């Protein structure tokens, strides 16, 4: 089991993952279709009708979903790794057998397009922030991003399996510097994107201030778990 793998195979988690997959299929279909205006309007009406019952049962944003597992850094609606998120890939990050850090493989679809047929640069930055953040967590160095430097060496092609990797490069007090790359899976040594991020673990006082109102689904405070002295 790894940091991004959901905790249990509960029925609710299965359903959350199923809806997430359906949303992602909808987004991909909507950005890669030649359907007519009438067909698009029919799809929009169907999606609105299908999701109206969900909007009628809102979860406050400071109450974590029941399917999250903060102890294992599993956030089910995270926009990069969350199996329940419509915008997530979702990346399946694993320990990197090639020597420390974390790695994931994915083929990115048209919903992430920037230049025609290539990945949007902002999406590359988003993915790297998450991958490098998980590399820090894997080294027991949870922190918030205070800096993210992204170098775009070559465009990242869509629909081609790429390898996203990150590893801790330096530790200094509450600061953790993490480096990583996006590369074609069949040419992992040729970086298309290089990134360096600095994460800082908030002090316990700052964590208490930021996360004071945040509760798990069972009502427990989370702030004590995210501060580092
Ligand atoms: C457990 C839960 C897990 C769930 C997560 C799952 C997903 C995970 C993946 C997530 C991926 C996505 C992640 C996201 O999206 S995180 C969201 C984006 N990031 C933020 O919003 C962070 C905003 N920044 C802050 O709130 C504060 O700066 C924090 C709280 C981080 C530190 O405020 P605090 O008051 O506590 O600390 P301090 O100010 O005394 O500083 C402490 C030390 O740090 C050094 N420093 C500060 N800034 C910089 C800098 N720019 N470069 C280099 N160094 C810097 C500073 O000099 C000092 O060093 P020193 O003087 O002691 O030597």
From TrEMBL:
It is an enzyme of class 3 (hydrolase). It comes from Geodermatophilus sabuli. CDD domains: PaaI_thioesterase. It catalyses: decanoyl-CoA + H2O = decanoate + CoA + H(+); dodecanoyl-CoA + H2O = dodecanoate + CoA + H(+); (5Z,8Z,11Z,14Z)-eicosatetraenoyl-CoA + H2O = (5Z,8Z,11Z,14Z)-eicosatetraenoate + CoA + H(+); (9Z)-octadecenoyl-CoA + H2O = (9Z)-octadecenoate + CoA + H(+). Its main location: membrane. GO terms for molecular function: hydrolase activity. Keywords: Apoptosis, Cell membrane, Cell projection, Cytoplasm, Fatty acid metabolism, Hydrolase, Lipid metabolism, Membrane, Transit peptide. Gene3D superfamilies: Hotdog Thioesterase. InterPro entries: HotDog_dom_sf, THEM4/THEM5_acyl-CoA_thioest, Thioestr_dom. GO terms for biological process: fatty acid metabolic process. Belongs to the THEM4/THEM5 thioesterase family. It is found in: Cell projection, Ruffle membrane; Cytoplasm; Membrane. Its EC number is 3.1.2.2. This is Acyl-coenzyme A thioesterase THEM4. GO terms for cellular component: cytoplasm; membrane. It is a peripheral membrane protein. Residues 118-186 form the Thioesterase domain.
């Amino acid at each position: 089991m790894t940091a991004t793998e959901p905790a249990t195979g509960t029925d609710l988690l299965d359903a959350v993952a199923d809806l997430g997959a359906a949303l992602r299929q909808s987004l991909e279909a909507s950005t890669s279709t030649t359907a007519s205006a009438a067909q698009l309007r029919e799809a929009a009406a169907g999606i609105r009708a299908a999701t109206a019952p969900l909007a009628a049962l809102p979860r406050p944003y400071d109450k974590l979903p029941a399917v999250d597992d903060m102890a294992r850094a599993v956030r089910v609606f995270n926009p990069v790794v969350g199996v329940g998120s419509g915008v997530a890939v979702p990346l399946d990050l694993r320990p990197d057998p090639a020597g420390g850090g974390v790695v994931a493989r994915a083929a990115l679809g048209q919903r992430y397009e920037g230049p025609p047929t290539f990945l949007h640069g902002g999406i590359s930055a988003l993915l790297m922030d998450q991958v490098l953040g998980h590399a820090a967590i894997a080294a027991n160095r949870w922190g918030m991003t205070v800096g993210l430097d992204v170098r775009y060496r070559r465009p990242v092609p869509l629909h081609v399996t790429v390898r996203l990797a990150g590893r801790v490069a330096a530790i200094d007090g509450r600061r953790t510097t993490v480096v990583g790359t996006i590369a074609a899976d069949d040419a992992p040594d040729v970086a298309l994107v290089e990134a360096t991020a600095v994460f800082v673990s908030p002090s316990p006082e700052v964590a208490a201030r930021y996360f004071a109102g945040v509760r798990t689904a069972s009502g427990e405070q989370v702030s004590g778990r995210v501060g580092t002295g």
